[in-house]
Structures are given as structure tokens and as C-alpha cells.
Automatic annotation (TrEMBL):
The chain crosses the membrane at residues 81-99, 111-136, 148-169. It comes from Lentzea flava. This is Exosortase/archaeosortase family protein. The lineage of its organism: Bacteria, Bacillati, Actinomycetota, Actinomycetes, Pseudonocardiales. Keywords: Cell membrane, Hydrolase, Membrane, Protease, Transmembrane, Transmembrane helix. It is found in: Cell membrane. Its main location: membrane. It comes from the Bacteria. It is a multi-pass membrane protein.
């Protein structure tokens, strides 16, 4: 009796190792990722805001509404970053490629699309929060933007990214 074991092709093995290394990098270098993410938020806010915006990368904080009646600083905490929504996608993608090397290209495309979607959703969440603070004031706007609407944006956006990942990675 012979058991046939399917071997993973060399490039697929390398891809799996790189994906697991990227996942570990997100965990161990999450501060750097959050700095990049809040810097992106600051750049977007600088373009669309009529008030001052300042990013303090060392604190992963963006200050907006400078010079207005409702200035506020938002800190990108580990709980609010898109890194930990991207992380499971990377791990699942690596496992999918390890188990079925022939779908590597589809999984990588799906991973790219889903990761980009999660980052965009998180930026939209920050912009929603900023908009509500500008509209409703700091106390009410922050409360509604962070606890209710921001959470809904994250949940629905993350679910849409997950559906897109699975659909793109498994379709023929």
C-alpha cells in the first residue's frame, strides 16, 4: 500500500513562508503599521478638510479640526487598526496555498483585494468619525462615530472583504 502525498511546488512553498512572515510582521511590527495607517488618515484629511490637520507619527495620532471649535486628536490603537483584520486573511491565504498550490494566483489576488478593502473601510471609518465630530460636536459625534456607526462600518466592511476574499480565491 502506497500513500501518495502531494508536494507543494517550490514557488508555492516560498509564498507560504512569505505570507506567514508577513503575518508575524503584522503582529510584531503593529506599531509601524498603525503609524502608516494614521499617516494615511492624516493625508486624506489634509486634502478634504478646510481646517488644520497634524499627524504625530510617534503617537499614531492625527489631530484634525485645528483652528475650529471642535479640534480633536484620534489615536490609532491596536484595537482600531486594520492590521488585525488583515492578519486572518493572510493566514488563511497561506494555508489555502499550502493545501492547494495551483490556486496560488487566485488566492494572492483575492488577498490583495480583500486587504485593500479592509484598509479602505478603516479609513472610511476614521472619516465617518471625523465627519460626525464636525457635525455633532466632540462628545456626541465621537460617541456615535466610535461606538455605533464606526463599529457598523467595520463589521459590514470586514464582512464584505471576507466574502470578496472567499469568492475570488475559490471561484474557477
Amino acid at each position: 500500500m502506497t500513500l501518495a502525498v502531494r508536494r507543494t511546488a517550490f514557488p508555492s512553498r516560498v509564498t507560504v513562508v512569505v505570507l506567514f512572515a508577513a503575518a508575524a510582521g503584522l503582529v510584531f511590527a503593529h506599531r509601524l503599521y498603525r503609524t502608516a495607517e494614521i499617516s494615511l488618515s492624516g493625508a486624506i484629511l489634509s486634502v478634504i478638510s478646510s481646517h488644520g490637520v497634524d499627524v504625530v507619527p510617534d503617537r499614531q495620532t492625527v489631530y484634525f479640526g485645528l483652528g475650529s471649535d471642535t479640534p480633536l486628536g484620534l489615536r490609532m490603537t491596536p484595537e482600531c487598526t486594520s492590521a488585525f483584520l488583515v492578519l486572518p486573511l493572510i493566514v488563511v491565504g497561506a494555508v489555502m496555498i499550502a493545501l492547494r498550490p495551483r490556486i496560488q494566483h487566485r488566492v494572492l489576488v483575492a488577498l490583495g483585494v480583500a486587504a485593500l478593502a479592509v484598509v479602505i473601510v478603516n479609513q472610511f471609518r476614521v472619516l465617518t468619525l471625523v465627519g460626525l465630530v464636525n457635525w455633532l460636536g466632540v462628545d456626541t459625534g465621537y460617541h456615535w462615530g466610535h461606538t455605533l456607526l464606526g463599529s457598523m462600518v467595520s463589521v459590514f466592511g470586514g464582512a464584505a472583504a471576507l466574502v470578496a476574499f472567499v469568492w475570488l480565491a475559490t471561484r474557477k
